[in-house]
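Contributing new records

If you add data, match the layout below exactly. Sequence lines come first and carry their own label; structure lines follow with theirs. Keep one chain per record. Anything else will be rejected by the validation script.
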Amino acid sequence: MDAMDTQQRIKDQVTGNRVVLFMKGTAQFPQCGFSALAVQVLNACGVKEFATVNVLADAEIREGIKQYANWPTIPQLYVNGEFVGGSDIMMEMYQAGELQQVLAPQ
């Protein structure tokens, strides 16, 4: 698969789900502290359903997602097709009450 296919797969995941977290591991078994924090923040915001993409299971997605948002680190949160940020930005937005508004059902 080439890079264009990978970017299209990422776009399909981002636009096909209202809330998507690209992370290391799964929501049930995060494989790094930052991914675990991102899941905890989503849970704290009351998000019951969100898609996760385990970048450890797909090397092309793992590299491709960094180019997709021009963001070097994982996890990455997308809401309504828009890049929100990584776990640090999620935490800052949560503490300011902004993330809850972004995640509120439309």
